[in-house]
Every structure is written in structure tokens, then in C-alpha cells.
Amino acid sequence: MAALIRRTEFERAIHSVPSLIAAGILLLIADGVGGLISIGGMSWYQSSHLDPAGPRQLTQAQANALEWATSNEGKFAHNLMQWNQDLLSRDQNGQLVCAKDVKRLGVTLEIGASSRKASSGFCTLWTSPANQRQFVSKPRLP
User: Fold this and answer.
1) What is the pLDDT of residues 78-113, one digit of tens each?
2) How many CB atoms lie within 10 A of CB 21?
3) Are residues 83 and 119 in the same domain?
4) In a domain, 62, yes or no
5) For residues 127 and 80, is the Cβ–Cβ distance under 8 A?
6) For residue 38, what are the domain limits?
7) Is 33 a member of any domain?
8) Model confidence over 111-133: pLDDT tens digits?
9) pTM of the full structure
10) Are 79 and 129 in contact (CB under 8 A)?
11) Do 115 and 79 lie in a common domain?
């Protein structure tokens, strides 16, 4: 009787081996496909979000400049340059357009409590985007 039980267990184990091998192969295939998908996904992410030239070593000055550029102050400076592109351009003599406007309009700038007035060396610039500027409307003539 014991021999019959052992033989039945042996036959059951032999029939299980092919199933275990098939399951192992399917598991390896699934792992391989998952690995390929994750490698492809990472490659796509890196190519669309990172510098295509690869990682770079920045100098301390470059790192400081990057930190400033991404700060609120740096972002405002960037906006200020964009809002005033036409005013900060130079004419054929190399003079800033905004400085010529100051001279043409006769604008003076009083500096602090010293009551000194400057008539050149400064510009009037936009400090808000075009959609937030307010203009004085001219009265209509009848």
C-alpha cells in the first residue's frame, strides 16, 4: 500500500513538472516585457524632459545664476525684459530707445531726499504686463 501511495505521488509530481516549467517560462516572459516597457518609458521620459546632450557639471557661478534665474526676483527680471523689449532696444548710435524717449519727453527723475534731479541716464519702463496697464483716455472733441 505504501508503494502505491509513493508511486501515485511520484506520478503526480512528474505531471506537475511541465506545468511548473511552463509557469516559469511565462513569468520570465512577463518580466521581460515589463522590463522592456519600463526601459522604453524611462528613455522617453528622459528624452522629453532632460537635456539631450546629457548631464552637465555646472560651475558655482553657473549654479548661483540658475538659482537666481528661477527665483521670484529672476522671473520678474525676465518679465521686465519681455515687457520692455522695444524700449530696451538700441538705435543706430547705440543709444537705448527708452533713454531717447526720456529726453524727448523732458522727463526728470528726483532722487530721494536730496532733491537732486536727473535728466538723463534712466528710462521709463513698463512694470506690468500689457493686459494690466491702465491708460488715460483722451476726451472726445465734438
Assistant:
1) 999 999 998 899 888 888 998 888 888 888 888 777
2) 10
3) yes
4) no
5) yes
6) 1-46
7) yes
8) 777 778 888 888 888 999 989 98
9) 0.51
10) yes
11) yes
Burial code (b: 16+ CB inside 10 Å, e: under 16) for 23-60 equals: eeeeeeeeeeeeeeeeeeeeeeeeeeeeeeeeeeeeee
Q: Is residue 16 part of a domain?
A: yes
76 and 127 inside one domain: yes
DSSP 3-state of 110 = strand
**Domain count of the fold of the chain:** 2
pLDDT in tens, 24-55: 899 999 999 998 999 888 777 766 666 667 77
Which segments within 7-115 are labelled E, that is strand?
109-111
**5: enclosing H helix or E strand:** helix 2-49
> Do the domain assignments include residue 78?
yes
C-alpha 44/C-alpha 36 separation (Å) is 12
The set of cell numbers assigned to 81 is 525684459
